[in-house]
Amino acid sequence: MARILVIDDHDTLREGMAVTLTRSGHTVTAARSGTDGVAAYKKTPFDLVVTDLKMDGLDGLAVTRAIKSLDPAAVVMVVTAFGTIETAVQAMQQGAYDFITKPFTPDVLRAKVEKGLELSSTRRQVERLSARTEALESDAASAHGNLLVGDSEPMQRLVGMVRKAAATDATVFVRGESGTGKELVARMLHQLSPRKDGPFIVVHCAALAETLLESELFGHERGAFTGAIKRKLGRFELADGGTLFLDEIGEIPHSVQTKLLRVLQEKEIQRVGGEETLKVDVRVVSATHRDLQAEVKAGRFREDLYYRLHIVPLLLPPLRERPEDVAALARYFVAKHAPRVNKRVKGLDDSALRALARYAWPGNVRELENVIEQSLVFAEGETLSETDLPQHLASAAPRSDAGLPVPMGDRPLPDILEDLERQLIARAYEKAGGVKTETARLLGIKTSALYYKLEKYGFISKGERPEES
Fold first, then answer.
1. Across-strand partners of 79?
2. Mean pLDDT throughout 268-286?
């Protein structure tokens, strides 16, 4: 759980807040003065700071200024008496994110703290993203886009597998839907491998006819076919000492599959129309959105080639299966495109992030990047808002397959709870196949109450009579 610093010179209140937050599962450090609190933060940064406003010596205003100077991303909440709310507003102007008025109940404290921790998590993600963006600009390798953005468990697992595979020379097979970033995985494999100083060559197999694909891969001699007016080196020769990425490998015809298998087995090629055998030292990474096992069973893809390519399989999850990565990716694409498209824009507001989170992204990461670039063109403020997004996103219904909503920024708690209720009802309604009584059973509420909720959130029209199928 989170690490929280509580600063208050009133022993009873300080200890009470510490006990409440500790029982909520957090690790709490308590300081009896502003000076002690700032010193504690210098030693160990915290996820959240709760500080009293009126204290002897270093007061809450001074504590806020000091901590924000140490850590601009720090989230500070001030505790104030009713008569000093104006001073609390001053603290917010100097960097505090919120205030809580005495007296307050443990439930109010917990709710305020959880909201602050959501903001802290978001700010830390922005910090990590900024660090990655800086690395992208300073690292020539990263300039090719070999950066897989995402802190979700599926992406972290994939990155770990990429790092392990990169250290070897094994053939890698990347499977994933269109737009998920298969080429980025291939580039990352190359840049982390001992071949990183060699060439990285890409062939989009689906974009070439059979005769052109063979020439593209293996090269050709002058006069090999009509139009071959001079010798051409193939991509295998050009990739010698480096990595060759064969995108949409499932689209190549049988004749080319046979020659490709020989190259993988013998590490040698013959140009089209030539007789000379040429040795090549190439690491092959292939990718497809197709189910190659099904293609093998259907006789459209050679089984022996499939196993030769499939030494190290990597599965790239679609964006809908890792919705927690949408916000980080969106911020990354703003940082990537804004300097070129719209320098005024620095980020996204909460309304835009909520709209992006509830969309299913059938086009995956590529679609998200296109949406961000398009939105930057028309944005007029310093942050992208929901109104800047394409209409089909702004009006998208809540995802029924998404996880629980993550509150961000300064969203009121009732709004957060409404989002949560809406998504829970949507998931239960889908699971029950639209049967109202079963939906009510899954949710543990009366059918009459369910009809009210379904009308409220637009799942059924107003006044629809209870009927089951």
1. 52, 100
2. 92
Number of other CB atoms surrounding residue 299 within 10 Å:
9
Query: Is pLDDT at 409 greater than 60 in this prediction?
Result: no
Q: Say if strands 268-270 and 172-175 run parallel, antiparallel, or are unpaired.
A: unpaired
Say if residues 200 and 246 touch (Cβ distance below 8 Å): no
**How would you list the strands of the sheet with 27-31, edge to edge?**
27-31, 3-7, 48-52, 76-80, 98-101
Which of 361, 325, 330 minimizes the C-alpha distance to 346? Answer: 330
Q: Is residue 181 predicted with pLDDT exceeding 80?
A: yes
The pLDDT of residue 68 is 86
Alpha carbon distances (Å) from 132 to 32, 75, 116, 332: 38, 22, 24, 9
**Omega before 362 cis (within 30°)?**
no
Q: Which residues pair with 101 in a beta bridge?
A: 80
pLDDT of residue 134: 45
Q: Is the dihedral of CA 216, 217, 220, 224 positive or negative?
A: negative
How far apart are alpha carbons 53 and 79 in whole angstroms?
6
Euclidean distance between CA atoms 384 and 374, whole angstroms: 11
Give the contacts of 174 (CB within 8 A, at least 6 positions apart). 182, 185, 186, 285, 286, 287, 314, 316
CA distances to 169, 339, 443, 451, 452 from 462, in Å: 63, 47, 21, 9, 9
Write out the two tokens for 244: 């060759």
449 near 456, Cβ under 8 Å?
no
pLDDT given at position 167: 92
What single letter denotes the amino acid at residue 428? A
Task: Determine if the pTM surpasses 0.70.
Answer: no
DSSP 115-151: HHHHHHHHHHHHHHHHHHHHHHHH-TTGGG-------
Q: What value does the mean pLDDT take over residues 386-390?
A: 90
Residue 159's Cβ-side half-sphere holds a number of Cα atoms within 13 Å equal to 11
* Separation CA 325–CA 386 (nearest Å): 18
